[in-house]
Every structure is written in C-alpha cells, then in structure tokens.
C-alpha cells in the first residue's frame, strides 16, 4: 500500500513539473509573440493562470505530506516529548478543521462555478476552482492518518524531531532562510 501511495505522490510531483513547465512556455511564447510580432495567443494568458492555481493547490498537498509547510519550531522545540505530541495533535486537529471548511466551501461554491465559463477557453470554472476538492480532501486524509498514528502511539521519534525542526541538515536550514 505504501508503494502505491509513494507512486501517487511521484505522479503528483511530475504533474507539478508539467504544470510549471507549461506555464513558463506559454508565458515566454506570449511575450516573444507580443513584443516581436505584435500578436499573441489569447488562450495562453488564461491557461497559465489556471496552471498556476492548480500548481499552488496540488503543491500544497505534496508539501503537507512532506512536512514542509511553515511551522513554529521555535516554540515546539521548547517542549519535551509529551508537549510536542500534544502540539502535533492540536496542529492536526486545526488542519483537519480548516481543510474540511475549505472542502465544504468548494462544495458550496461549485454550483456557481459550474454555471460560469472561462472567457477565452470556455471551460467550466468548476475545472479551475474544483481543485479545492482535491486539496481539502488530500490534506484532511493526511492529517487524519497522522492523528490516528499520534493517538495510537505509532509516531516515531524522527517525526517528533522533524515537527520540532531538530532533524534538518544545513542545506534544509539554508532553504528556509
């Protein structure tokens, strides 16, 4: 099962690369066409914006899985093992609540988005903003899995140290500054 999950996240990372590359190519091509030939591709402006939205929200799920979101390690590192576990439990509960609200908001907004079409491509705006379903559900599932492991005592010392920011290499610390 873990291999299937890892493969799924590798495919998401590949999708992020494709979205970023597609966005860069569309924008670059449009800049060259506009300044060099006084023309452009209308679809590329719209699609690059949508790619950026999808890139952001898919990337949020991948980043959450890798524990790479911004944390308050300075505060958490002051606590002992029990305090850190309590912080991890509270953090996951808050993340679940906020992500569930985000999913629910996407659900409530869907009829409006489904009734609207993009100005140039004509695609339903649900294709653009429906990514909230994926992000909300994905983050809730990851946080629920973490919460279950915390409450059943199956969390490792390495995960607790990562939550407190103690197991970072110099390269990882340099990336954060």
Automatic annotation (TrEMBL):
Upper lineage: Bacteria, Pseudomonadati, Pseudomonadota, Alphaproteobacteria, Hyphomicrobiales
Biological process (GO), any one: C4-dicarboxylate transport
Protein's recorded name: TRAP transporter small permease protein
GO MF annotation terms: transmembrane transporter activity
Location in or out of the cell: Cell inner membrane
UniProt domain Tripartite ATP-independent periplasmic transporters DctQ component: residue ranges: 23-152
Bilayer topology annotation: Multi-pass membrane protein
Keywords: Cell inner membrane, Cell membrane, Membrane, Plasmid, Transmembrane, Transmembrane helix, Transport
TM segment ranges: 12-35, 47-64, 85-106, 126-144
GO (cellular component) term, any one: plasma membrane
Family per similarity comment: Belongs to the TRAP transporter small permease family.
Pfam family, one: DctQ
């Amino acid at each position: 099962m873990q291999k299937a999950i890892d493969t799924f996240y590798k495919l998401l990372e590949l999708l992020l690369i494709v979205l970023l590359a597609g966005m860069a190519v569309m924008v670059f091509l449009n800049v060259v066409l506009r300044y060099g030939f006084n023309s452009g591709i209308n679809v590329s402006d719209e699609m690059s914006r949508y790619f950026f939205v999808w890139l952001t929200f898919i990337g949020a799920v991948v980043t959450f899985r890798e524990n790479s979101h911004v944390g308050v390690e300075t505060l958490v590192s002051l606590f002992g093992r029990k305090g850190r576990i309590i912080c991890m439990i509270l953090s996951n509960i808050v993340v679940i609540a906020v992500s569930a609200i985000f999913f629910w908001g996407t659900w409530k907004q869907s009829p409006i988005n489904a009734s609207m079409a993009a100005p140039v491509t004509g695609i339903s705006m649900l294709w653009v903003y429906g990514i909230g379903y994926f992000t909300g559900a994905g983050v809730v599932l990851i946080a629920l899995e973490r919460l279950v492991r915390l409450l059943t005592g199956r969390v490792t010392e390495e995960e607790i140290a990562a939550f407190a920011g103690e197991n970072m290499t110099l390269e990882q610390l340099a990336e954060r500054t």
